[in-house]
Amino acid sequence: MKNWTEILMHLGEDRTAYYGAVTPPLIQSSNFAFPTVQSFREAFEDEAAQHLYSRGNNPTTLILRKKIAALEGSEDAMVLGSGAAAIATAVMANIKAGDHVICVNKPYSWTQKLIGTFLPRFGVKHSFVDATDIQQIEAAIRPNTKVLMLESPNSLTYEIQDLAACAALAKKHQLTTIIDNSYASPYYQNPIDFGIDIVVHSGSKYLSGHSDIIFGAICSTKAMIGKIISTEYMTLGPVLSPNDAWLALRGLRTLRTRLEQSSLSAQKVISWLKQQEEVDYVLYPLDPNFDQYELASQQMRGAGGLFSVNFKERPIEKMEAFSNALADAFLMAVSWGGYESLQIPSCVFYRMASKEPPPVPATFVRYYVGLESAEFLISKFKQAWHHLL
Ligand SMILES: *Cc1c(COP(=O)(O)O)cnc(C)c1O
């Protein structure tokens, strides 16, 4: 059992090094100076571990890396300028021209773009599979398959993968497993415990938690993180600025408190919604009616504030009016994991000239419950409800 409080509050911090300051300093410096040629030489010889230049190492950023590694239970972690950078960097570090990647169906949109559109330019092939079924993953494995890209749960319909089974299959075929763990966060799921090789996060969501920065993380062995830093990371340069690392540290302090509160309120809102006649179904991995509830409860300790609702069939105008009426309480915005409640009504993607409709109906809405009280949010639903009728 992890000591969450110790990790979030103290781990990686050396207060004696900065006047006993309770909060670590923001070392907003691009480069670091050395008093002698010999010490400068030593820093060059061990650039991954020394503070030489902030594209590589920075003391404020290093505290964040240590905390995130401890939260995931990985040997090491690195932080990057976005979750998308974390995903792309982790995947690219494990493939070369001629290789093949297997990815879950319906991953995060920019993961889809990376594997489906970007990597083919460099001769990397792919298969998207229904990974709720381990046999479909196995059937897609080719002699040149190198990476199995998972996302469990995804952040719209929450399909999950059997992580232990995926890890065992990958070992048998010498594939590197990568999982996007942004939905559960390290507080509710630690894929490394199930044998997954690399965990990636969009820290823009729960980890930073205040909708104020874009940030990503990769967690793995020391060898893997070292390899990624010295190759993809240093050449592509997807750096997290020390200022944003400092904000991430501040947000991270309350990870546990925020998640528990969001999670509790989301469950209250969900149980109210489930009683309403106008609701067709609710999707939440730890709802007993969820298709993969048993597997979810074996792998996850909780499920946070993000869930989806499908309302019974009705004209798109009603969905629009209802969503508009809710927009002062559930802000109409992408992302999630901050302090404020949000909604993405899928009717927004219908009647769009430039986009195909999503794989869900216009009556489907993704909600995120932030730190408002459940009673307040339910009262807002009640006020807006007549628009549905
Ligand atoms: C937001 C998100 C990402 C991308 O992260 P950014 O920090 O926005 O680059 C990746 N995966 C999932 C599941 C996300 O929700």
Q: State the CATH architecture of the largest domain.
A: 3-Layer(aba) Sandwich
CATH superfamily of the largest domain: Type I PLP-dependent aspartate aminotransferase-like (Major domain)
* Shape by Cα distribution: globular
Low-confidence stretches: none
What's the gyration radius in Å? 22 Å
The top level CATH class name of the largest domain: Alpha Beta
Summarize the helix and strand pattern as letters. HHHEHEHEHEHEHEEHHHEHEHEEEH
Explain what the structure shows.
The protein is an alpha/beta fold and 389 residues long. It folds into 2 domains: 4-252, Aspartate Aminotransferase, domain 2; 255-388, Aspartate Aminotransferase, domain 1, CATH 3.90.1150.10. The protein is built from 14 helices and 12 strands. The protein has helices at 4-9, 37-45, 59-72, 83-92, 109-118, 134-140, 163-172, 185-188, 222-236, 242-252, 255-274, 293-299, 316-326, 374-384, and strands spanning 76-80, 100-104, 125-129, 145-151, 176-180, 198-202, 216-220, 279-283, 306-311, 331-332, 342-345, 364-368. The strands form 2 sheets. Strands 1-7-6-5-4-2-3 form a 7-stranded mixed β-sheet, with helices on both faces. It has a 5-stranded mixed β-sheet with strand order 8-9-12-11-10, with helices on one face. α11 (255-274) packs parallel to α14. The protein binds pyridoxal-5'-phosphate. Pyridoxal-5'-phosphate (PLP) is lined by residues 82-84, 108, 155, 180, 182-183, 202, 204-205, 214, 216. Residues 82-84, 108, 155, 180, 182-183, 202, 204-205, 214, 216 line the site of pyridoxal-5'-phosphate.
